[in-house]
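Shapes recur. One chain:

:::
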Amino acid sequence: MLQTKDLAVVILNWNGKALLQQFLPSVLKYSDDAVIYVADNASTDDSVAFVSETFPTVKVINNNENGGYAKGYNDALKHVEEPLICLVNSDIEVTENWLQPIIAEFNTEDTTAIIQPKILDFKDKTHFEYAGAAGGFIDKYGYPYCRGRIFDTTEEDKGQYNDIKAIFWASGACFFIKNSVYKELEGFDESYFAHMEEIDLCWRAFNNNYNTKYIGTSTVYHVGGATLSNTNPRKTYLNFRNSLFTLLKNTDSNLLYKIWVRMVLDGVAGVRFLFQLKPAFLVAILKAHFSFYVNLPRLLKQRKQLPKRPGYYESSSIVWSYFIKKRTTF
């Protein structure tokens, strides 16, 4: 029977002293006897010294380089032995009793490997936050969306998602996973650097017959964009590129057709950015596609090695539903 003491809460940090100063106290206050780690990605500020001096019960893991979210956690979690892991962004505020419902759910079903709590917007606590909201899904062409958030539209939290539900992917902003499963799946794909690596990991978990769940009775608040803003073309590049990586590696059927449709839809997105007078974002999409082509041999090799399982996606296109049919809620 898993208990809170079996949980490692791991916060990845890179030059984030201000965020740690603001948000680490809530994690310490409401995490009972869980083990708290700060995994530092070779920061050049004094955030590590600050943590060691101010929060002496927190264990610090020093990574040798800034490998982004994916490699940063892969490097750090080699030093974590607790059977449950919670990966928490440094801009997350947790709430009282946030852990108990999640620990209880892990004890309910052996096949439950990954769990996400309800993620609300720290800047507007009445609404869901972009990165994860009330649990993630994916459409037939590999586009991710959430209960409570479709593309840039977020819903008000009215208790409509205060449930326990099987989902397809959990947000990396607050991501619980069994340590044994993380190691079995060999962690995150480090080629992603950041963004969508958690979707890839959840997809690989699904293809290995594990389940991912959302627990609506556990709540955290996420600032979002504290490390890389949505207004940064670098984020657009990573999102478009890594989404194509994930689709090619993991989809079970009709690969060429799905990739072709994605190329068309990504092209439409690029033209839309151009009409919005955002040429840097169009360039980011073009760079994402170029990187995808360069990485094709490696991705195809990975695809051949990875197991596949049908039934992962919604049968419709979320792009069609949102932009054409004007569907803005889950």
Q: What stands out?
A: The longest strand covers residues 211-222. The chain has a mean pLDDT of 95. DSSP finds eleven helices and 14 strands in the chain. Residues 66 and 112 are 31 Å apart (CA to CA).
